[in-house]
Amino acid sequence: MRVSELVRRTGTPLATIKFYLREGLLPAGRATAATQADYTEDHVRRVAVIRALSEVAGLPLAKIREILAVIDEPGEDLFAALGRAVGALPPYRREPADELPRAQAAVERLGMQWDPAYPAAAQLEHALAAAEAAGLPPSGERLDAYGVAIGAIAEYDIAAMPPAAGSAVEYAVLGTALYEPVLLALRRIAHQDRARRLLRDPGAAGNPDG
Amino acid sequence: MRVSELVRRTGTPLATIKFYLREGLLPAGRATAATQADYTEDHVRRVAVIRALSEVAGLPLAKIREILAVIDEPGEDLFAALGRAVGALPPYRREPADELPRAQAAVERLGMQWDPAYPAAAQLEHALAAAEAAGLPPSGERLDAYGVAIGAIAEYDIAAMPPAAGSAVEYAVLGTALYEPVLLALRRIAHQDRARRLLRDPGAAGNPDG
After folding, report:
1. Best residue in B194, B198, B201 to probe A by mutation, most A CBs within 10 Å?
2. How far is CA B204 from CA A73, A161, B193, in A?
3. Which of A114, A150, A176, A197 should we substitute to test contact with B (largest number of B Cβ atoms within 10 Å)?
4. Complex ipTM, two decimals?
5. Cβ(B181)–Cβ(A142) under 8 Å?
6. Closest Cα to residue A156, out of B142, B19, B73?
7. A143-160: per-residue pLDDT in tens?
8. What whole-number distance in Å separates Cα of residue A167 and Cα of residue A197?
9. With the CA atoms of B31, B33, B35 and B37 taken in that order, what torsion angle do they form, in degrees rounded to the nearest 10?
């Protein structure tokens, strides 16, 4: 397809597409004339990935480049590739955490295997320390409830991961960046739903038709 | 306690405490002399709440003020107070969504009652539209899996809410702002745990000791 068709298909301004080409985020099309190139479905897909990472997830260009490189060359070890790609997503901690006592205790309690060097480890430690500082450290019971529910979500996510390595990396990155806001919004709406049942319609608790 | 003790107890610099006092976020202590005032446990608690909202959740002062006003005067209708307070948390949408087709369909599928004017409604619509634009709209199966798990989390959260109205509002606001990062970090670690079982130790799948 012509670049005009790529613009139309992706809903992305020509200037943005040219910027992606110039920055090497989007591979050049196959040249068909001195000033014309032919683009494929792979280009359509790649533009969608770049826009999701930059405009929705707010990643800087360097991090997008890092992730695209893993999608393009995941290498032999898919588990390591997934970690590298998802590890390039925000939030970015300024200082790596040397000690992770709260995260360590939580992850052990939930019986999960983890790599403390994985960015999510410091992210969890920081989040738990903040909750503690505000006087709301998680009880063991709360951690267990969250662990079971989040475990079910993660199991669904991993079971639905496509088998081809490049597609798996792309799915993991987009599924993390794009579905985190979905899950948080759903939780807020579920809070409203449950609080309404408790405070407004206590008689209807447990009865979705109530 | 003297202000020096408040500084020590909250780990907050004196300049910051003075700023909170000047801005009216922190009520003045009881004057004990021309230049001295007496502070209570309520002040310790309030400083922790302000810091969690400003430094962890990144709220602007005006929004913190809004939330503190609801904590201090929740009024007769606790359900409405919870909505006002949690609705003052980020993310802040620039434009309110007039139509919420994706969110509407998702919430109906999950059998939840909602108020489309609640900020989380536009947040869900925006998040689902972004996933769709990136070619990853949620399947019904994915929505169902997420809905069950998030529903269990929300039920735990609401069941553990303290009964007194002011405390309930404070709990709802801090539980939302502080536990969203915890849940996201846990999901990333759970992904790593499940991916490791699938890709590295397939024989150990389902066996936490494997």
Report:
1. B194
2. 28, 19, 12
3. A150
4. 0.92
5. no
6. B142
7. 999 999 999 999 999 999
8. 42
9. -30
